[in-house]
């Protein structure tokens, strides 16, 4: 692939066909910078795999020319890929104080050494890297220190929105820096690269302050002694609201779950949270004093605190008349897990409140009103919707066009976008895709092991061992897993079929695989249409003496 001189390029390698694993490149005359390096959670598509990262094979061709990595904020879909991908790079990572502290905990004992690579940025202070000048501006989201970046290069001003919303009372950190945005507008914004997550939402995303007020009302009026609240560990404003409520109402508060406590410590070290006097440990919860119990597991994660408490695998217990508030949204793909945990807890007589019942959560991404507000301030000449699945990206481009943005273009991961022309366009395509982190190895989504896991999960597995000693059939072992309810009957019938074929001299060392599979298919056909994984071992001992 040829890259032209004096052309500014944009390439998303992740986040522009999915919500997750954001990874964006900007390049000009062989100087490249990266914005964000995120992960995605694997979900049910890839059994046995937790984490997905972008396939960065394309980077190998320009690795020497990558000059810096800029992180917009500390959510996993923007920062979580650094521990997996950084070994490739030899350049600084710029990020705000909160994101830096969080990343330091993730990259301890790796090559991503703090003093060498992690550089704290100050808002509004330009960072000059080769031909690029990058400036961080404050924008509200659902984690402290989210940033919108201006990238000035080759007489162009590009605005990379990161994740954002307009929250007039964000509770933690500063409000959106509208002065910064207006100044960018004065310079003239050529391209806005913008969050598409909530483009289907007609309303404003809402303020953390409104959630605080409503949580206060619910907790104050509740007669339950134990009020469980589950939320995202990174939502520091929400944690601060719960501490605020506990202090105001003079009730106890306790945090359960590793990620919550880590998040709390980082937020405390940045001055965003403070442990109140009425903070207690989980073994100090008493039935005499009202207590807010903040716990991990709002997405139904089986190893998180909420799930363990629900399954009676924790010292803290649910009892009748407790209250549980899901101060979170359901991330698509987690509906079943959350549904089953809600059913389990409901049966224990616990009252449950979710965002569907009351205002106990607000999103961190812009709805249509907020998108329109940003277009009005920045007046971009062109727009590239990112941070979305195809449906979000298409809808965002349509919406922007209706609202008067002249040149919204639709892109996909791997597109090489020419930003230098008046009408930006997709000039070419580079390699892109996903890499699965499978324990300590990295595998492709098309890998045989994933296909096998899916097949075994849905169809079960049959093991067949044929033991031949001194040219006589000594024994046949058949065993099946996850195939049929009446598996003993099936195994017995298959054993007889194999014995019959052997006695008829149909099976020998050359054709045992084929004939055995034919026997399996004949017997299977009688009871199921499943296509299980079949493993056949043929042991032929010719000089065996008993
Ligand atoms: Zn994001
Ligand atoms: Zn985010």
Which characteristics define this entry?
single chain; 546 residues; alpha/beta; Metallo-beta-lactamase, Chain A; Rossmann fold; Ubiquitin-like (UB roll); 8-stranded mixed beta sheet; 7-stranded mixed beta sheet; 27 strands; 25% strand; binds zinc ion
Topology (SSEs and partners):
Layout: E1 8-14, E2 23-28, E3 31-37, E4 40-41, E5 51-54, E6 66-70, H1 76-79, H2 82-85, E7 93-95, H3 97-106, H4 114-117, E8 118-120, E9 127-129, E10 132-138, E11 147-153, E12 156-160, H5 178-187, E13 191-195, H6 208-221, E14 226-230, H7 236-249, E15 252-256, H8 258-269, E16 291-295, H9 305-310, E17 323-326, H10 335-347, E18 351-353, H11 368-378, E19 382-386, H12 390-402, E20 407-408, E21 415-418, E22 425-429, E23 434-438, E24 441-443, H13 448-459, E25 461-469, E26 472-481, H14 487-503, H15 512-527, E27 533-541
Parallel strand pairs: 3-6, 6-7, 7-8, 12-13, 13-19, 14-16, 14-17, 15-16, 17-18, 19-20, 25-27
Antiparallel strand pairs: 1-2, 1-21, 2-3, 4-5, 5-23, 9-10, 10-11, 11-12, 21-22, 23-24, 25-26
Helix pairs in contact: 6-7, 14-15
The structure holds zinc ion (2 copies).
Task: Give a structural overview.
This protein has 546 residues and is an alpha/beta fold. The protein has three domains: 8-203 and 363-443, Metallo-beta-lactamase, Chain A (4-Layer Sandwich); 208-353, Metallo-hydrolase/oxidoreductase (Rossmann fold, 3-Layer(aba) Sandwich), CATH 3.40.50.10710; 460-541, Ubiquitin-like (UB roll), CATH 3.10.20. Helices cover 29% and strands 25% of the residues. The strands form five sheets. An eight-stranded mixed sheet has the order 8-7-6-3-2-1-21-22. Strands 9-10-11-12-13-19-20 form a seven-stranded mixed sheet. Helix 6 runs parallel beside helix 7 and helix 14 (487-503) runs antiparallel to helix 15. Bound molecules: zinc ion (ZN) (2 copies).
